[in-house]
């Protein structure tokens, strides 16, 4: 009954932690492609091949359902995987869907025409690859009209987090928020479009101001996954052993993961 969670590195641990709290009965298998992180500066073909390899490894570990906790992978690889590669008995879901459901206050299966929503000015903070893909804007346009999205590519933030340099990461966040505000002085909402960024949610909120609603993905994804598994219980795979896997150095990754989640995490070689 295992469910897989894939990320380019450690950011997806924010999603895993929320999912494990929301669904304590489900064993999760986490795979971080730390050897190839960050994905945000890679081209689309490279991201696709790395993501496909990671998802296959999770299928091999007994997962029939995999969550792409990496926004870059969701933006650059998900649709292509679903159309050209995914086995008929497997499913791969991205992390944009719960965000857009929350922002537009409509369920994903609602296929009615796009309509006006309460939020008109949205700031999107994401990796350069996610920003370049315009995947968030494309999906949002199917469901809402009249929403102005200003995207800010947050170069360097993921690298700093992966290296454990949170002082640098916080400084970069403040710099990127300042750059965004020069383009959109008064956003009503902000999307943290990378699963690394919830580790710095308080810094984003402080820099943006208390009047800006910050949407962070982890809890939204966890609630959406719970709903999905209720509707599709057969997608719980045959695996029963929770695992943490990495393509990087297991000891180094374990130490950083333990620091982030503030509990002991033991990674093993993928």
Order of helices and strands: EHEHEHHEHEEHHEEHHEHEHEHE
Strand arrangement, major sheet? 4-3-1-2-11-12
Unreliably modeled segments: none
Helix content estimate = 40-55%
Largest sheet properties = 6 strands, parallel
Q: What's the short story on this structure?
A:
By secondary structure, the chain is α/β, with parallel strands linked by helices.
Describe this structure in words.
This protein is α/β, with parallel strands linked by helices. The chain has helices at residues 13-22, 44-60, 71-76, 78-84, 96-104, 128-133, 135-141, 157-162, 166-183, 201-208, 217-231, 250-261; strands at residues 3-7, 28-32, 65-68, 91-93, 115-116, 121-126, 144-145, 148-153, 189-192, 213-215, 243-246, 268-269. The longest helix is centred in the middle third of the chain and has 18 residues, at 166-183. The protein is 45% helix and 17% strand. The protein is built from 12 helices and 12 strands. The protein is globular, with a radius of gyration of 18 Å. It has a 6-stranded parallel beta sheet with strand order 4-3-1-2-11-12, with helices on both faces. It has a 4-stranded parallel beta sheet with strand order 8-6-9-10, sandwiched between helices. Strands 5-7 form a two-stranded parallel ribbon. It folds into 2 domains: 3-95 and 218-269, Rossmann fold; 97-216, Rossmann fold.
């Amino acid at each position: 009954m295992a469910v897989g969670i894939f990320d380019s590195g450690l950011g997806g641990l924010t999603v895993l932690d929320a999912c494990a709290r929301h669904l304590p009965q489900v064993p999760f298998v986490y795979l971080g492609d730390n050897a190839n992180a960050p994905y945000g500066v890679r081209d689309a073909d490279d991201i696709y091949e790395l993501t496909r390899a990671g998802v296959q490894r999770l299928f091999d570990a007994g997962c029939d359902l995999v969550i792409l906790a990496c926004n870059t992978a969701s933006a650059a690889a998900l649709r292509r995987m679903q159309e050209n590669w995914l086995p008929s008995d497997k499913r791969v879901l991205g992390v944009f869907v719960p965000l857009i459901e929350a922002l537009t206050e409509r369920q994903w299966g609602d296929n009615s025409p796009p309509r006006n929503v309460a939020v008109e000015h949205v700031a999107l903070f994401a990796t350069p690859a996610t920003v370049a893909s315009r995947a968030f804007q494309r999906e949002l346009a199917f469901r809402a009209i009249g929403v102005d999205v200003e995207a800010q590519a947050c170069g360097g933030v993921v690298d700093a987090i992966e290296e454990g340099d949170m002082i640098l990461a916080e400084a970069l966040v403040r710099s990127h928020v300042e750059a965004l505000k020069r383009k959109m002085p008064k956003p009503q909402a902000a999307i943290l479009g990378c699963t690394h960024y919830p580790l710095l949610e308080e810094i984003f909120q402080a820099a943006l101001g208390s009047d800006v609603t910050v949407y962070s993905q982890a809890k939204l994804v966890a609630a959406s996954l719970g709903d999905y598994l209720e509707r599709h219980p057969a997608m719980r795979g045959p695996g029963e052993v929770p695992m943490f896997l990495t393509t990087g150095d297991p000891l180094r990754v374990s130490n950083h993961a333990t620091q982030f989640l503030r509990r002991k995490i033991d990674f093993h070689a993928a």
